[in-house]
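[User] Once you have settled down, look closely at the record that follows, and write a paragraph about the fold.
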Amino acid sequence: MASATLIGATKKGTKSPDKVPSWVWALPPIAALALVFLYPLALVVQQSFQPDTGGTSLQPYADVFGSVAFREALSTTVWLAVGATVGCLVLGFVLALVIAFVPFPGGKAVAKFIDVFLSFPSFLITLALLFIYGSVGMANGLWTDVTGAADGPFQFLTTPWGVLLAEITYFTPFVMRPLLAAFSQLDTAQIEAASSLGARAPRIIRQVILPEALPALMAGGSLVLVMCLNEFGIVLFTGAKGVTTLPMLVYSEAILESNYPAACVVAVVNIGISVGLYGLYRLVSRRVGA
């Protein structure tokens, strides 16, 4: 009994070692993030204020904002991103509805293929479209073989509409994946009850399915919008003439023109638009409770 009392007194008198503060564990990832991302980003911002003549000024921004090429690239980037996002939302919602609620053979295999599709690089999808609809693709080749014409009718891949088609084709699964996850958690009893009360498919979709899918649509749509704003490979591999987006303008200014201050200005603008859209998405999602 005495020994137990002595042991208890010893334990009370001994101080437990101090625990490592939680902020210490955050230092390594923060340091790695600062090294591989924040430091190069700071260099880009710094270079955007340093013209080739030396010193620090806002002249690179004035030159870029005053150029016609920048304004055209900005408008092209915005309308392509918005158009692709709308197309992905509509097409992704319809395809996700079919996969989730219309029983057909191979439905599960199609759902799994969407996960694999997300890992494909964007230029691979563009090359596939070029093999089908390109100037020397299968569709034009079949047309020339049948009609004997010199050229086929499918020449749209080298236009903005071809870029739009390629972006919708590639980014639609990014909308379908969160939608399929939302549909899998939907209580089918609500659909059965609405159907038993005489509601038809359009009304069930509008009043039962769509409200439940709205947060997933917002998440997928915002992701597609930001990715389309920064897409480079699709525009480059389609070879669309006269289609210059902000990423393509950064490439041409830095690599082709060796105008690094101008390229950094365009990059800063592109980053600002992306971060601004992300902040807007976070604000709206909190307001609607997503």
The longest helix spans residues 68-101. The domain at 41-288 is CATH 1.10.3720.10 (MetI-like fold). Confidence is low (pLDDT under 50) at residues 9-13.
